Amino acid sequence: MLHARNERAPLPPARPEKPTAKTPPTSAPPSVREGGAPGAKQRDPFFDNAKYLTILLVGMGHAWQPLQDDSRTVEALYLAVYAFHMPAFIVISGYLSRTFTGRPHQIRRLITGIAVPYLVFETLYTLFMRWADNPDREFSLQRPGFALWFLVALFVWRMTAPFWHRLRWPVPVALAVGLCASVTESISGDFNLMRVLQYLPFFVLGLQLRPRHFEMLKDRRLRLLSVPLLLATAVFSYWAVPRMNQAWLLHDRPAAEMGVPSWVGAVMYLALFGCALVLTAAFLTLVPRRHMWFTALGAGTLYAYLLHVYPIKLSREFDWYDMAWVDHPASRVVVTLLAVVMMTALCSGPVQRAFRFVMEPKMSWFFREDPVEQARARSGAHGGGEQPDRGQDGRERERRRETVSAGR
C-alpha cells in the first residue's frame, strides 16, 4: 500500500504540437515563397492584385477623359472611378510604407525609387511636350507634369511617416491638415502641394491599418453589399453629371476657386473623404486574395503609372479622339479595352527589366556605406558565408521592432 502510494503516476501522452504563428503548419520552410526561391521575400497576393486593378482604373480614367463631352455615361463612369481610385491607391501605398522609419537603406530606396525617377521622368516629359506641343516649354522641376505629382506626394508622405507614428491621433490631425488646405487660397502651386495635403489623410490612414483590418473585408456579407453599392454609385454619378463640378474629385484647388464659401468647401471635402473610404472598402472586398494570372503585375504598377503618360498625351496632342470611328458607343468599349491592355503591358516583366535602370537604379556610388550593414556583412563572412534567412518569423520580429521604435 505504501509502495503503491509512493509510486509515481505515469506521464500523460504528449500532445501533438499545434501550429502557431511561430510554427508554420506546412513542411516547407517559411523563407520559401510559393513558386520562389529560398530567402525570397514573401509578397501578399491581395495587395499586388489590388495595386494592379487600381492602376487599371487609373489608365481607364485617363482614357475616358476626352470622351466625356460626347457621352454622359462615360462621364458618369469617370466620376465614379475618380471618387475612389486614387484614395484606394494611396491607402495601399500608406499601408505598405508603415515600417518606414528613416533607416539608411530606406532612405536609399526613397531616393532611388522615387526622387530619381521623378527627376528623370519630369525632364523626359518636358522634352516630350516640347516636341509634341510647345517648343518653348520651360524646365520647371517644381511643377510636376501630367500625373507626376504622385511621386512628389509619395516622397513627402513617406518622409513624414515617422512623424505620424508618434502622434496619438494621426488620422484626425492629417484630416485637419487636408481640410485646412482645401479652404486656403494662398497655398503655392509648386510641387502640387494642394494635392499633396488634401490626399494626405488617405496615406496616414494606410499607415495605421494592420492586417486584421483587411481580414475584416473577407466577410461575405460585405462582398455582397459592395456590388450594389458600386452600382448605386455609378447611377448616382449619372444623376450628378450635370449638377456637380468634377474638379472636386481632383483635390487640386481651394474652395474659393470652386466658387463656393469656405464652409461649403470644408463640408464637401469631408463628404468626399467619407465617400472615398466607403468606396475603397467596397472595392477591396472584391479584390481576389489568391494568386491570379495578373498577381505578378502588381509589382510593376509604378512603371505603368509613369510610362502610360506618353501614350495618353500622344492621343490628345495628335487628335486620335477626333477620328471618325471613335464617335460611336461601341468605340468607347474598345478604348476602354485598349487602356486595359496598355496598362497590363506596361506592368509586365519585360517592361520592368527594360526600365529598371531608371526606376530602380542601384547608385551605390552616391551613398555612404552604412556601418551597421558593413558589420552584418563582416559577421556573416566570419560565420562561414551568407547568413541564414530568418524566414517569416524573423521578418515579423524585425517589423515589430521597427513599429516599437516608431513609437507605436
Architecture overview:
InterPro entries: Acyl_transf_3_dom, Nod_factor_acetyltransferase. The protein has 408 residues and is mainly α. It has one domain (49-366). The chain has 19 helices and no strands. Helix 3 packs across helix 12 (220-240) and helix 12 (220-240) crosses helix 13 (262-285). The model is unreliable at 1-40, 384-392 and 402-408 (pLDDT under 50).
Distance between the termini: 62 Å
Mean pLDDT: 85
Strand content: under 5%
In the residues, how many domains can be counted?
1
User: Could you say which overall geometry the principal axes of the C-alpha atoms support?
Assistant: globular
Q: Look at the helices and sheets and give the structural class.
A: mainly alpha
> How is the quaternary structure best described?
single chain
Give unreliable regions as ranges. Answer: 1-40, 384-392, 402-408
How many distinct beta strands?
A: 0
Helix-strand topology string: HHHHHHHHHHHHHHHHHHH
| Helix percentage | 55-70%
- Round the Cα radius of gyration to an integer and report it: 25 Å
Instruction: Please outline the major beta sheet.
Output: none
H/I helix tally: 19
GO molecular function, one term: acyltransferase activity
Pfam families: Acyl_transf_3
Biased composition (Basic and acidic residues): 387-408
Transmembrane segments: 76-97, 109-128, 140-157, 222-241, 261-286, 293-310, 330-351
Keywords summarizing the entry:
408 residues; mainly alpha; disordered N terminus; disordered C terminus
Summarize the structure.
Residues 1-45, 374-408 are annotated as: Disordered. The chain is an all-alpha fold.
